[in-house]
Design a protein that fits this description.
heterodimer; A: MetI-like fold; B: alpha/beta; D-Maltodextrin-Binding Protein, domain 2; 10 strands; globular
Chain lengths: 273, 393
């Protein structure tokens, strides 16, 4: 009974800070300035299609690269002794304690035409390459900022795997490749999936990275939404409509991801039997 | 009986204490009036580096306390006032926002009889385009948009630099541009000789086409970063506001600043009182105080922008007062234009033009729908494949 009473606090909290804001976005997205129902905002979102395409594209690329970089690292960390594991995990999390803005700003100084990287290259007589203000720089910024969110859940999933299962597979004659494909990969899949969602969602909706590293010409959805609320137009209705469409897109992509989650499938299978 | 009496006395005491404290509290509140002032960040002399703390001085003189807070952009100010969540007594928006708020009936008419120091304000700042009846606003500061250039990287002489240089192919990849539709369009509009406040969509499209021509030459669309990028020699040319120019010129001697005589955008930040102000009379006192030449001079010294009062100019250092960047010649001022508010519909049209300029592609409205349908199809396929697989297991 007491626990039940206690949970009311969280229910109220969720209601005020999750349900009501979502409802507000929904209402704003489907009304005009005087509060009448309209579909115009949603239709106007179509004007910014290529911003959506660019955001989803860059978000997907950085998620894939994060996965390629993150999975082996998570695997390697899980293999080393546990006291070292803590240190390595700390080192991965350490940059996250530094302000996000500052980290991205630092990349600006590195990538600039007169920046550290080009100064370094000039030692070898390489002419300055313009790294900054390209979509590549934006992807780099996303990978740098969101990589820990990929590594940590995968690491958590791999560490949880019972070593005896791997040994059993080896005893039964599975080679290294088979152990990975048939045992490790499926069992670490939940971690991979939560890693992908934890990288993809913030990457698609980020805004300051594209502003600082993309030179303003790589506009992402986040920049677009910011423009509606803090730009010269102040159009919260269109801003909400864009957020709403973005939410639907993310919702569907998470749905797709969850279909790959095998742990879910097993559970269903048990239930069916 | 005795018990009852004590009980009554206690009740009586408690009651009188409550009433007494209530009265005292009320009185106390009456004697301590607090006005809420909402201004741009770093936009008032606040006592740092030996400057005068203007708000403290105001309290010292009038006994009125100031609750001072700051905003980042006109739009955030607007959103805050419109939502009605916070009540401010004095706000200091820019020109076009003043005109927008006048149109939306969000400002009070000012009683100019109570602002005796208004007489110091130069005539050229009275009856401005954003407040044509001159009833709602008192100018606080003003400034102009000009061009930063790096003397090592730009071959032209100062007198030959005008807005066209930002379209010069010679400086491809060395040009920075404002990352804000209204400011960016203004530069192109001045170049093309179009009014900054044109209501004609075709004028805006023309300016957008012009900006598209410039896009391949632009290194980046940025706002505050212009400062750093110019200081580090990362870029050769960039538009910026004159009030902050002095700081950069001091930091890097290779940087120059020009206000093109062909014309420029002049902006004015003006003090207003919102409709829902709680202390309008005290707000007027505050505005009057801010107009006082001595106080205005303190503020201008701190902020770096220009003052609408010539008296103030005379109080400043000779070096500042004769600085052509802050107080340019009449000839340059003649060609400047102020922003006024545009209709909402036009504003969102300009926004989409602006995104178009920056992404450099024509938008296909069906692409988004295709993506959405694609996502849903993918979901269905995965779902069905999985179901089939489950059945075969």
């Amino acid at each position: 009974m007491k626990i039940k009473n206690f949970s009311i606090i969280y229910i109220i909290w969720m209601f005020i800070f999750t349900i009501i804001p979502l409802a507000l976005i929904f209402i704003f997205a489907f009304t005009d300035k005087s509060g009448n129902f309209t579909l115009e905002n949603i239709l106007n979102v179509g004007r910014y299609s290529n911003v959506f395409l660019l955001s989803i594209g860059l978000g997907a690329i950085s998620t894939i690269i994060c996965l390629i970089l993150g999975y082996p690292l998570a695997y390697i960390i899980s293999k080393i002794s546990s006291s070292k594991q803590n240190i390595v995990i700390m080192l991965i999390m350490l940059p996250m304690w530094i302000n996000f803005l500052l980290r991205t700003y630092a990349w600006m100084t590195i990538l600039e035409n007169n920046g550290l990287l080009n100064k370094f290259l000039s030692i070898f007589g390489i002419k300055p390459i313009s790294f900054i203000n390209t979509s590549g720089a934006v992807v780099l910024g996303m990978i740098y900022n969101f990589l820990p969110y990929m590594i940590l859940p995968i690491y958590a999933a791999i560490v949880k795997i019972d070593k005896r299962i791997v040994e059993a597979a080896q005893d039964l004659g599975a080679g290294k490749r088979n152990v990975f494909l048939k045992v490790l990969a499926p069992l670490s899949l939940p971690g991979v999936i939560s890693g992908i969602t934890m990288v993809f969602v913030p990457a698609v909706s980020t805004f300051i990275i594209s502003k600082m590293l993309g030179g303003g010409s790589n506009i992402l959805i986040g920049d677009l939404i910011e423009m509606q609320f803090l730009g010269s137009t102040y159009n919260p209705n269109l801003g909400s409509a864009i957020s709403f469409v973005l939410m639907v897109l993310i919702f569907i992509s998470i749905g797709i991801m969850n279909q790959f989650d095998d742990s879910d499938e097993n559970f269903d299978g048990v239930k069916l039997k | 009986m005795k018990k009852k009496l004590i009980f009554f006395i206690v009740i009586f005491f408690l009651f009188s204490i409550i009433i007494l404290s209530f009265v005292l509290y009320k009185n106390n509140k009456k004697s301590k009036i607090i006005i809420n002032v909402y201004n741009w960040g770093e936009y008032i002399s606040d006592g740092t580096n030996g400057s005068l703390n203007v708000n403290e001085e105001f309290t010292k003189r009038t006994g009125i306390y100031v609750n001072y807070s700051t905003f980042q952009s006109n739009e955030s100010l607007f959103a805050k006032i419109q939502n009605g969540g916070a009540k401010y007594d004095v706000i200091i928006p820019s020109d076009y926002m003043v005109s927008k708020m006048i149109k939306m009936d969000m400002l009070q008419k000012l009683d100019f009889k109570k602002i005796s120091n208004y007489s110091y304000v130069d005539d050229s700042f009275k009856y401005p385009a954003y407040d044509p009846t001159n009833e709602y606003s008192v100018p606080y500061t003003w400034g102009l948009v000009g061009i930063f250039y790096n003397k090592n990287l730009v071959a032209e002489e100062e007198k030959d630099i005008n807005w066209n240089i930002l379209w010069n192919k010679k400086y491809s990849g060395k040009i920075l541009m404002f990352d804000n539709p209204r400011d960016a369009f203004a530069i192109s509009q001045i170049r093309l000789g179009i009014s900054l406040n044109s209501r004609n969509k075709s004028d805006w499209i023309k300016a957008a086409e012009d900006l598209k021509l410039q896009k391949p030459l632009v290194q980046a669309y940025v706002m505050d970063q212009i400062f750093d990028k110019m200081a580090n020699g990362e870029a050769a040319l960039a538009p910026y506001y004159n009030g902050d120019a002095a700081t950069l010129l001091e930091r890097n001697k290779e940087i120059g600043f020009v206000i093109p005589k062909e014309g420029s955008n002049k902006f004015v930040d003006a003090m207003c009182i919102p409709k829902n102000a709680e202390h309008p009379a005290e707000a007027l006192t505050y505005i009057n105080f801010m107009c006082e030449p001595k106080i205005a001079a303190e503020n201008i010294k701190y902020i770096g922008y220009s003052s609408p009062e010539s008296v103030v100019k005379n109080q400043l250092d000779k070096k500042v007062a004769n600085n052509k960047i802050c107080y340019p010649d009449e000839q340059i001022l003649k060609n400047t234009q102020l922003f006024t508010a545009l209709p909402d519909e036009l504003n969102s049209f300009i926004d989409s033009l602006w995104v178009n300029v920056k992404t450099g592609e024509q938008n296909n409205p069906y692409a988004l729908i295709t993506v959405l349908i694609g996502f849903i199809l993918l979901y269905l396929i995965v779902f069905l494949v999985k179901k089939k697989k489950n059945k075969t297991l």
